[in-house]
Design brief:
The protein contains 13 helices and 13 strands. It has 363 residues and is α/β, with parallel strands linked by helices.
Length: 363
């Protein structure tokens, strides 16, 4: 354990990898065949290194994101490793440009790495550093495929992990196609497991209202992002008229978006994304907003850090298990009996498999 009163940032390394996915992620907006990731290593003068990763969604943004993370890291050299102060400095840097998009993603990646470094220095899992404990967090299996003929194969793989809840992406076609996807999945998992659906913002408010009236009879766990992510008023209208819970949040850009969403009454469940919400710092602020109103929080991807964050969230609901980074990690997140486990080791628990990293590295 580091015993000095403080740690000092020595430097930051950012590497771009484009990881080929064994099974592409399919959405109503298209197919994602690879995971374009920026790996972040934050080094301190005291010899402790923290890690995180962020996802650019498209390889077109991968190198710009890597360079942005690296450039921001250079501005922190010599600063104290104090995540809240680092967050303030980065927010000030982007005050005129804005905290959304690549700027927000880069800042979140650095924030997560800073918290990971601090937890490693204290030899504690991140959840314990944040005042929580190692625990089991309820999870659900998030399907990548939208093809009916491939659903069975993927669900059977996920079922081996013990999930009692699943999510399938819909919206590629009319409401009849939506029902076919739901019925296909029900034919595999049966009636007992919970089943959610995700439209990935593919509908207008009017279209969403028409489909929700049909889907309300399907006994769904929730309907996710039926319309444009930043249309909080539209989602509020849908949530008021739907009997099925509405979930949004993976595109909240920081706690200010959360506050706007809550004010509008836009959702029944919230789904912050660690990379877009502002890293660990942004998530903690979001959890503080969710607690007084009893908004259940479900994570969006990034299961390695999300399990820690949900473990300390008063209204924790479910962890989304959609694995995109395990092929470059020595120890992917563990799922047992449908629960995600907070790892025993210090920090988030990210250790790069350097041999695998070298195969996907963009030089």
């Amino acid at each position: 354990m580091i015993t000095e009163a403080s740690l000092t940032v020595a430097g930051l390394r950012a590497r771009a990898v484009n990881v080929r996915l064994d099974r592409p992620v399919q959405t109503s907006g298209g197919e994602i065949p690879t995971a374009p990731l920026v790996l972040v290593d934050l080094e301190t003068r005291e010899g402790v290194t923290g890690r995180s990763y962020v996802w650019s969604y498209t390889p077109l943004a991968l190198e710009p994101l890597r360079r942005l993370v690296e450039n921001l890291g250079a501005t922190l050299e010599g600063d104290a490793l104090a995540p809240l102060e680092i967050e303030r400095k980065l927010q000030a840097t982007f005050r005129l440009l804005g905290p959304q998009g690549l700027t927000g993603i880069a800042a979140s990646g650095i924030d997560m790495a800073a918290w990971d470094t601090l937890a490693r220095a204290h030899e504690l899992p991140l959840a314990e550093l944040l005042g929580g404990e190692k625990k089991r967090v309820p999870a659900y299996g998030s399907l990548r495929t939208m093809h009916r003929e491939r659903v069975t194969e993927e669900v059977l793989e996920l079922a081996e992990l013990g999930f009692d809840a699943y999510k399938v992406k819909i919206g590629h076609g009319d409401v009849k196609a939506d029902l076919e996807a739901i019925n296909t999945l029900r034919g595999v998992i049966g009636d007992d497991p919970l089943l959610a659906v995700d439209y990935n913002q593919s509908l207008s408010v009017t279209e969403a209202l028409e489909r929700v009236r049909v889907l309300d009879d399907q006994g769904l766990y929730w309907i996710e992002e039926p319309t444009r992510a930043d249309d909080f008023a539209g989602h509020a209208r849908i949530a008021r008229e739907a009997r099925t819970p509405i979930q949004i949040g993976e595109n909240w850009w920081g706690p200010h978006d959360v506050q706007k969403s809550l004010k509008a009454g836009a959702c029944d469940y919230g789904m912050p994304d660690a990379m877009k919400i502002g890293g660990v710092t942004g998530w903690l602020r979001t959890a503080a907003l969710a607690e007084p109103v009893g908004l259940p929080l479900t994570s969006h991807i990034f299961p390695e850090v999300s399990v820690h964050l949900l473990a300390v969230s008063p209204t924790a609901h479910r962890l989304e298990y959609l694995d995109t980074a395990s092929s470059i990690l020595k120890e992917p997140v563990r799922i047992e009996g449908g629960y995600a486990l907070v790892p025993d080791g210090p920090g988030i628990g990210l250790e790069w498999d350097e041999e695998a990293v070298s195969r996907f590295l963009i030089r």
